[in-house]
Amino acid sequence: MRGYKVFSGTANEEFAKKVAKHLTLPLSDATIKRFSDGEIGVQISESVRGKDVFIVQPTCAPANDTLMEILIMTDALKRSSANSITAIMPYFGYARQDRKAAPRVPISAKLVANLLQTAGIDRVVTIDLHAGQIQGFFDIPVDNLYGNIIFLDYIKRKNLKNPIIASPDIGGVARARAFAKKLGIDMVIIDKRREKANVCEVMNIIGDVEGKDVILVDDMIDTAGTITKGASVLKERGATSVMACCTHAVLSGPAYKRISSSNLDELIVSDTIPLKSKSEKITVLSVAPLFSEVIRRVYHNESVNGLFV
Asked: Which residues are catalytic?
């Protein structure tokens, strides 16, 4: 049997260790260093000849460095005769620029797809892509896992009296509807107008939230403006409680301050991105067992979709 190895970049080594532990494997050894001018140097410290290799690395902040680490590690592994290289990217950076939404702007997600393929990646595994069509930017297999598999169990255990799902914007309706369908409950929509990047204004609630325990659902939370303003409006409209489920805890800029002072009762996130600091309002659920099972299935040529049926 050819065997497989799991390597980690520096973005979320704790997550990679959890994945390796669930696979009952040691995390394979690679040296990643920075030269004095900031360039990244990589040396694979063990043989990978003929092995199927999995690199665990979310491309979170600093996104340029974490992305370059994957590309350089891939080149090193390819030149070391690895049989195949799979990028395990719990958080896929640059996904927000997925189309030409204005004149003279890039489609950065497509550029990243090209870079990964050119470097020699054979497969990508991620979770809750910001835009599902990014899968089509690749000419290699891309597994986009569903984060709701961990959030649904947590929500059920809460035994909320009168739960209802809410989408924080029109673009997230499909995601919210999938949650609502799985739980067998209704949903509402927050209609907002975004004036500029990372700044939003909540305008209206489509649906009734009076006396409801509202569960906001989104793929990521960045500056927390959308979620916290949404929570305020929901409480103003009579919601009993407001919690949010966001897979990727980007949490940049004023996010932590906004969350702590907001009307949000609880924020549930996954560990795809390491938290910069702790908060009483933030609960972290691990998706490491899910990714480890996907690695096992990919290696043994078993169905990944079977996990979500």
From this structure: 192
